[in-house]
Design brief:
Chain lengths: 500, 453
């Protein structure tokens, strides 16, 4: 067995990556099965594995380009030798024949399992030793191939003509007989022969196609042979290959530049773009089939386009953050107002205390925030009128709040400096917090503008900076037991708090 | 693994320093969960240290003069700092504005020597000023206001007469929150009812000088006082009757159950702290040359159990962890020392066949040694159990979710058991309009760009 497998295993280097060399003694079909099975095990997304690998195959074996076709739809390569004539002892044949025959064989085998899970329940085509071919050992399968008749036209195998296999019944048909122009052959996803379609009207079968490379579609004349007729790479890409993608973008950019675009500015905006690492799509099981469906055990899945685009989602998120930021800023501003009031009152009180020979401490400086909102204005008013009343009798009924003690009152000694220092400090911290919030807000607004601006569309250029690094605001240098506090904080050492 | 080996019924005292945090602080207190330490510095800022990562996670800057006391709210969300700049600030650790903003500032007209939260509601705050007045500040909307705690005088007409009245030097809530205990400069303890702000009892402590500090056992039944005669006295508190309308105040002399002092050197005490079960008392000695913490065994009649030596930097403050045998103490140089109970790992005690070896031993197992099937087979022969049952049990065990997120809840409202006398008015009053300090609140992790420390 291994020896008979060898003619098929030999050309493996040309196949390269897609088919791992299996030492299995079973038929070749099984030996290349892994590739097959892997495609089938995909539940929903990325049917492009196939096309991907097939593309790889195509590129890696340029000689075989025309002859070798994709796994999903099987086409018999033309120009190869007649397949039956591969005797057990493959060494006697010429290498070329060997290779092509072998390719064809494994090509057949490779494709054979496109519907391996599908019950092949249709009427067997006469002479369907093809199935026998793939299940039985290779040396047996070579016989009887010469006389087999294929296609609707019931002719013997002619290796000059391209053939395609039905994915249901495993029968081979000439592409010309089933009305498939050569250019479309690459784009076939799953081919259902006319016979199967006819015989199963209740199933409503049809051939499914892959999406075409965008480069080909966007050409001036899409149907010309020059345009790219290869299939796109599925969910990952709209193009069949990187070259097509690049070519297409070249064309678009040159058109845009012709119409007055600036190449440099475009480069600036897109230079940070990165390759997508993955794609997540939502797929629904739906009744009807459309162009981009994958058939799987009778269930049909469609890829659902997200209702909200990515940019919209991003915009919504940014706007929400903006909202919360604005709210915080408002709250901070209100607090700043209170601090400003305190500052004013402290100043007024100090001034007042300077004029009289008493302590002058204003008890209302102890007001909490709510009391400030309630009584704030009345306090300020009291100072305005206060000046005129001071000369009058010392005992003023309303003025209980001024401490009447001596100038250097025991309890309140030094209140002036203390209060001023405190108010200054408070103001500063709030200021800094406010600044940070303003900065954040500005950044977010800028980002929103960037999104809305069509020139700078790529979303990945955003640099993540959601919550700016939290750093203690006024870092205090290590005080070695020194208690003196600089009222305005140590401006030079903002940033990191040093713990020495 | 260590904690599982430690017998949970056998909370002892710590013996060695586990870590030293360079914080430049004068005070350090554990929070109720024991995970965070609030450190107050002499320049007016406070730092919150996370003991699990041994790093400072928040800086609270707002005071312009040194901090005199820190207190935590029940679920560690709010921190109260009082300072010599006449203010007490309540910080909200859940605030996400950077830098952390204060929740409220309570201003007084004299330096605040201490401030503490009500144990049940962080909107009720007790503040003691250096001038000797104590205020109960209520920040709730319905009960807003501040009340000065005063002893009732028979001659209530006079407004002054500050001379006979003794200054208050210590003020503290008891663990239930029903009463406020105030120590005076003449060596008495005044007990006020929190809700009515009236004095309920007056205890004269013979021999004690100025009261310097209080600490309560978690149950609230025992109180340790620190006074200027350098003795720590432990009292068992009587049950106080609910306050009645007329000004009735019990005058009682309390006799301490135990006295703790240093007979040799007669050193004073800076601070003391009960262990969570009340069995041990840690006293921080005011020794100017070394860092000494004395541990007394209260269950054994107050004998000195051990002396912890923390090095050459003299001690300033001591606080026992709320649930573990761990102590935090601060030194003169600003370092925070965390003490713990080092337990040597005894893997030999883990399972029957374990033994400790000195060197690595290469072991080659038998081919079927760790087969699960065999094990269950053997078991089934031994216990005549069905193999499938065993297999099922094993599967079930594997599927059990291991809960790694919920921590041990700190004292599960032990205090609620102490609703003696059916006087629930006090609790309702305190719980009315609860603060926003919910149980499941967690502090946000703040990412810093540049490297810390």
């Amino acid at each position: 067995n291994p020896s008979s497998c060898s003619p098929l295993l030999k050309p493996e280097p040309t196949f390269d990556t897609p088919i791992p060399p299996y030492p299995s003694s079973t038929s070749t079909a099984l030996s290349v099965k892994p590739e097959r099975v892997s495609t089938l095990s995909l539940d929903t997304v990325v049917p492009s594995r196939d096309s991907g690998t097939s593309t790889v195959k195509l590129e890696e074996r340029p000689i075989q380009k025309k002859k070798y076709s994709q796994p999903k739809s099987r086409t018999k390569p033309s120009g190869s030798t007649r397949k039956p004539k591969v005797p057990a002892d493959g060494l006697s044949l010429k290498s070329k024949k060997l290779s092509t025959a072998a390719i064809k064989k494994s090509a057949i085998a490779a494709r054979s399992r496109s519907t391996s899970v599908m019950p092949v329940g249709t009427t067997p085509v006469p002479g369907s030793e093809i199935r026998a071919l793939v299940e039985v050992e290779p040396d047996d399968s070579e016989e009887g191939m010469e006389d087999k008749l294929y296609c609707i036209c019931k002719t013997k195998y002619d290796d000059e003509r391209v053939m395609i296999a039905c994915d249901r019944c495993d029968e081979w048909y000439h592409t010309s007989c089933v009305n498939m122009p050569d250019m479309e052959v690459d784009l076939v996803d799953q081919f259902i022969c006319p016979l199967c379609v006819e015989k199963n009207p209740h199933l409503d079968l049809r051939t499914t196609w892959k999406r075409r490379c965008l480069n080909g579609l966007q050409q001036v004349d899409p149907n010309s042979p020059d345009s790219c007729h290869k299939p796109a790479r599925g969910a990952f890409s709209k193009y069949c290959s990187d070259e097509c993608g690049v070519q297409y973008m070249h064309m678009r950019i040159s058109l845009w530049v012709e119409n007055g675009g600036s190449r440099d500015r475009l480069w600036d905006t897109v230079k940070n773009a990165e390759r997508r690492e993955g794609v997540v799509v939502l797929a629904h099981a739906m009744e009807e089939q459309s162009r981009s469906t994958m058939k799987m055990e009778g269930r049909v899945l469609t890829i659902v386009q997200p209702k909200i685009t990515k940019t919209d989602r991003e915009l919504a998120r940014l706007r929400e953050r903006l909202e919360t930021l604005v709210q915080k800023r408002e709250a901070l501003k209100a607090e700043m107002d209170v601090v400003a009031w305190r500052e004013k009152v402290t100043e007024l009180a100090i001034q007042h205390a300077d004029t009289i020979d008493q302590c002058g401490w204003d008890q209302r400086l102890c007001f909490g925030d709510e009391e400030v909102t309630e009584f704030g204005t009345s306090v300020l008013e009291s100072y305005e009128e206060g000046h005129s009343q001071v000369d009058m009798d010392g005992a003023q009924e309303e003025a209980e709040w001024w401490c009447m003690g001596k100038k250097k009152c025991d309890r309140h000694f030094g209140w002036q400096k203390l209060r001023m220092a405190e108010v200054e400090f408070d103001k500063e911290t709030k200021d800094q917090a406010l600044q940070k919030l303003t900065k954040l807000e500005r950044e977010i607004r800028k980002r929103v503008e960037d999104i809305l601006d069509p020139q700078a569309h790529l979303g990945k250029t955003k640099i993540r900076e959601p919550s700016s690094p939290r750093v203690p605001v006024l870092s205090r240098p290590a005080v070695n037991g020194q208690l003196k506090h600089k009222p305005n904080g140590d401006q030079s050492k903002k940033g990191k708090k040093r713990k020495e | 693994m260590n904690t599982s080996l430690l017998n949970p019924f056998n909370i002892t005292y710590p013996t060695a320093v586990q870590a030293s945090l360079p914080s430049q602080c004068t005070l350090a207190r554990f929070d109720r969960s024991g995970r965070f330490v609030a450190a107050g510095r002499s320049d007016g800022s406070a730092a919150i240290w996370d003991l699990e990562t041994r790093a400072a996670v928040r800086w609270l800057e707002g005071h312009v003069k040194g901090i005199t006391s820190v207190d935590w709210s029940r679920n560690s969300r709010f921190v109260l700092t009082s300072s010599k700049d006449w203010n007490a600030i309540v910080w909200d650790l859940a605030s996400d504005i950077d830098p952390p903003q204060r929740r409220t500032t309570i201003r007084f007209d004299a330096p605040v020597s201490s401030a503490s939260f009500h144990p049940r509601n962080s909107q009720i705050i007790l503040a003691l000023l250096q001038s000797g007045d104590a205020y109960l500040v209520d920040l709730r909307k319905k009960h807003r206001g501040r009340v000065e705690l005063e002893e009732a005088h028979d001659d209530s007409d006079e407004e002054s007469s500050t001379s006979p009245r003794s200054a208050m030097t210590v003020a503290h809530f008891d663990p239930t929150g029903r009463h406020i205990f105030v120590g005076t400069s003449t060596g008495s303890i005044l007990v006020f009812n929190t809700r009515t702000k009236t004095i309920v009892a007056r205890h004269k402590i013979p021999g004690a000088g100025v009261m310097k500090g209080f600490d309560f056992a978690k149950s609230g039944r025992r109180l340790v006082t620190n006074s200027s005669d350098r003795t720590l006295r432990q009292f068992t508190l009587p049950i106080y009757p609910p306050p009645i309308a007329d000004r009735e105040c019990t005058e009682q002399e309390l006799e301490p159950t135990h006295r703790f002092s240093d007979p040799i050197n007669r050193t004073a005490w800076h601070a003391m702290s009960f262990s969570p079960d009340g069995e041990w008392l840690a006293g921080g000695a005011a020794d100017p040359a070394s860092h000494k913490i004395y541990i007394w065994d209260i269950a054994n009649d107050g004998q000195l159990a051990s002396t912890l030596d923390g090095g050459r930097e003299p001690l300033i403050y001591v606080h026992w962890h709320p649930s573990k045998p761990s102590i935090v103490s601060t030194t003169n140089h600003g370092n925070i020392l965390i003490w713990h109970c080092p337990s040597p790992e005894r893997w030999g005690a883990f399972a029957g066949g374990f033994e400790e070896v000195d060197e690595n031993v290469e072991y080659e197992e038998r081919e079927d040694e760790f087969d699960i099937v065999n094990l269950s087979l053997i078991q089934s022969y031994l216990f005549e159990e069905d193999e499938s049952v065993l297999a099922k049990r094993k599967m079930r065990q594997e599927e059990e979710e291991v809960d790694i997120l919920t921590g041990k809840d700190a004292e599960e409202d032990i205090v609620d058991h102490l609703r003696f006398n059916g006087d629930e008015d006090d609790f309702f009053w305190a719980d009315d309009e609860p603060d926003e300090d919910e149980r499941g609140w967690r502090m946000k992790i703040v990412m810093e760009d540049d490297d810390m420390i």
